[in-house]
Amino acid sequence: MTTAEAAEQAEPTKLSRSSFFILIAGLLANAVGQAFIFAILPPLGREVALTEIQTTSIISTSALVFTFLSPWWGRKSDQIGRKVVIVIGLTGYAAGTVVFAGVFALGMKGILTGWALYFTALICRCMQSSLMAATSPGVTAYAADHSSRAFRTQTLARIGTANSLGLIIGPVLAGLLAGLGLLAPLYIAALFTFIAVFIVWKFLPEGDNTGPARKRAPRLSFLDSRLRVYLLSAIGTFTGFSAIQQTLGFRIQDSLSLTGVETAQYTGAALMVSAFFTLALQLSVTQRYTGPALNLVRMGLVANLIAAGVVTSAQGLTSLLVGMAFMGAGLGLLGPAIAAGASLAVSRDEQGGAAGLITACPAAGFVMGPILGGALYQISPTYPPLFAGFITIVVLSYAMKSRPHLMVEED
Q: Which of 52, 59, 155, 256 is the most exposed place for a label (fewest CB within 10 A)?
């Protein structure tokens, strides 16, 4: 046992309040920007004559890049420090958002059209993803470094509220800013993120994991038996979620005969409802829960299964909102439970690697989910949520058979 680990057992530690709010600022800026993208990309794609599959494949392909690089950034944070990696991720996201918006501005002016516009947007989004993949692993590992096992679940649940807040604030702002033009939300997101970069760089204390003396952490695998149930639950959940989320704008626009701006506003409202219930469950359940993380995972999967059923049978906006509320509740249970369960299942020297793998899972879900959702939507609007329900049943069956005591002791 190392001196640091012995000290942790003797005196349980919590992430300081100042560091918590700084990390929240970074994640919140990132989450708001992502909410903007999810709300405006479907109508924006139609505005520049991209097909549904082209639009959703931009998200899917960039998510694939994110999936491969998140674990790498997690391991990199073990070597060069969490703070540096967080700053790289936020800066890459801010700069990439400006470039991505610029590409669509050229498309709206007719300078870039057709496949040239599509591939340019795709390349820019992938380059952005390669850098923004650093943020979440860095933040998660930083929080784990500065909180002992006794407070790990609570700390990571509190950190998770930043994404929920961003997904609540983001759609509201996207709807308001869309009135200024579909690209306005993207430029505002970049500004928010550049401010967050300054805050993190200036005020976040350096972690204790930097320097050449730190040993090289083991390279964790997606097949690691300690993490398997958490990784599979995350990938399955976000595959189904992304299939619903990325076709939600199309379904709302087609069922209500809305304009592009109106679609962004209504889609933003639906995503806001989902995020509100995510936040509510994080505040009311996950921050107070002290049992095995796997139990929360199972509860979250059941909520998502209900959501898929409601969205499939939805006949109007109200029933769609109810379905998104159940989905938000499921994510509110799943997110912190998956992050905490994985963190508690590995040693201190594996925190960065585990954080990188867990961060990669939502992006992995967004690789095939949007493409399949877009393709299935062209057959029937009910097929994407049916697909989500099928995936959830498979994952829930595995989670029910898995053993809840996956925790290992730190050596």
A: 256
